[in-house]
Specification:
Number of domains: 2
Strand order of the largest sheet: 4-3-2-1-5-6
Number of helices: 9
Radius of gyration: 23 Å
Low-confidence stretches: none
Helix content: 25-40%
Mean pLDDT: 97
CATH class of the largest domain: Alpha Beta
Shape: elongated
Number of strands: 19
CATH architecture of the largest domain: Alpha-Beta Complex
Largest sheet: 6 strands, mixed
CATH superfamily of the largest domain: Creatinase/methionine aminopeptidase superfamily
Distance between the termini: 46 Å
Length: about 350
Amino acid sequence: MNNYRKVQEILQKLDIDAVLISNGNNMYYVSGFAGETGYVYISQKTHAVITDFRYTIQAEMEAEGYEIITIGNGGYEEAINDMLTSEQINRLGFEAEDMLYATYHKLKEGLNVKELVPLGDEITRLRRIKTPQELEYIKKAESIGDEVFREILDFIKPGMTELEIAAKIEYLLKMKGAQKSSFPAIVASGINSSMPHAVPSQKKIEKGDFLTLDFGCVYEGYCSDMTRTIVIGKASDQQKEVYNTVLKAQLAVLDFIKAGYQGKEIDKVARDIIYKAGYEGCFGHGLGHSVGLFIHENPRLSPTEEEVILAGMTETIEPGIYIKGFGGVRIEDLVVVTETGCENFTHSEKNLIEL
């Protein structure tokens, strides 16, 4: 990856001499190195991966065109100081939002540099607008999710536990080509579905339950995310009303969304429909979030998001209604925003499924 050039532009913009990248997703985005330990160091003259012996071969394979530095007994401080001294670095940028205070303190004490400059989200922001190649990876990851949803419908039976269904989902994702799940699958039945981020439990699936399935996978480093809510057995009139309200809100957003709106303007489309239907206070999370190398990226679709959504940004559209003691519904698609609308990467059935 040649994204180090984008980082060099940030160096000029912030008037800093070099940067130390520690966020794993940013390291991968900039260099291609996917190891779990190390730093990417970039100055106007140098771009290097600094890591330990366990990841040297991996770094040589993945970070094409980068200098690979393996730390010795002096640890990261010695290896970084060698770079700082040879290049006479005075102002070194670092990712404050990603770094433990203990690590920052160690670097502050150990590095021969005049000033450590926090970068804010400057590097993370580079990832907001996806390239055509990134979009292909995300689309493929989402298509794996669609396949798994179709298969899991044949698997689900009353009497199974939420944990059994979650395990099957995560197994199928990998069997269909995913590297891993992009987050632990959410399987929430009955009153558990009233919790947006319920953790799968030993609760058994019963007739009459809402069953919310929220899952995603990673393909070539990029995440997917989708949610469908179904009913086990026949749906009651109240279940149908709640479900159809959420679906109406979601479809309205899919029809409305395009580049140029603030995140809060898009969120408001769904929120107005849900609140006018009498469910104010039952939709407590934002409408969506961006997805890429990390499952929850910025910008968001929420009541407070003032960032303008641009073409090439990926966003989830996931309105929900959650009623304590009754249950909840969430329907989530993943789209890429365009100048005139969006392309929806999720193709699973959205009309209410009664199993």
